[in-house]
Task: structure prediction
Amino acid sequence: MRQVIRFALVAVLATAPVARAAEVDPLLPAETEAVARVNVKQMLQSDLMKKFAIPKLKDAMKAGDAAAALEKLGLDPLKDIDSATMGIWGTDPQDMKVVGILHGTFDKDKLMKAAEEFAKATPDKMSIVEEGDFKMIKFTGDEGKPGYAAVADAKTVVIGSDKKIVANSLTAKKSGAKAKLSKELTALVLKQDEKASMFICGMTDGKFNNLPANIDGIPGINGEQLKQQLGKMTNAVMTVRLGKDVTLEITAGMKDADAADGFGGNIGALIDLAKNFIPIAAGNAPPQFQPLIADVTKTLKHSIKKTDVTLSLKLSADALSKLSADEK
Result:
């Protein structure tokens, strides 16, 4: 009898819904300091997207030249893209290095043929270039900064701010290289929920060393103390979940439990200040914004767990529907 009960317990636990750890994409370069991942498929299947966004996206895909362009590309954005992962690094905020990896289903021949046709028609916007053994698409935005893209295979497209970045990711794909992020960032990514709609995480050691000498001016907050606490933040994570509602969590990973308690205390004070100030400041806001403001005031909170300080809030479908209805 005990064996039967044990077997039943294992079966229940095995089938229970649990958060799955995110994977580290092996195409991200070792220099990566922050990782962002968008679970495109989950977002498109969420109740909120189906209700508010999908109908508009479908209309946009049929309007003007969009349908013909998508046909040439052999791409259905609502079906063919599963996820998008981005790696970011650099010291100059105006010139950060970026690589993006799209996973899904792609027709390489159609994509390249459409790119070649567009390059011939608008050479100032797009061209076909080579880097080593790889052919890729160079595109130039309105700001004049170039970007590069290449189809690695039928399931992967790589986009980067530099053609060498794209080429390195293609080489990693071709060789079957293993993930090579830093030990700390790898551990942070592995802690994230793969089923979340989106998360952004990164290491923050040393990132707050150049804060202004005086950051006072917030009622009830010791500016110098807050500056010291920010200096003890080792990582930061933002997670967004779309379902029937929208939930947002921002977590600061601190150096130790004492640092978390101190920083958490200041976050709590800031939240109390916000809850008192927001309704007053929002008094003249249009009526359709009032439910969203009420959601923020009601659900904004923080928690402290070991070395993590988390701020969270929830926006209801009802509040979003009233905002959306007004836009119509």
Confidence is low (pLDDT under 50) at residues 1-18. Residues 257-281 form the longest helix (25 residues). Residues 26-175 form one domain. Residues 134 and 245 are 43 Å apart (CA to CA).
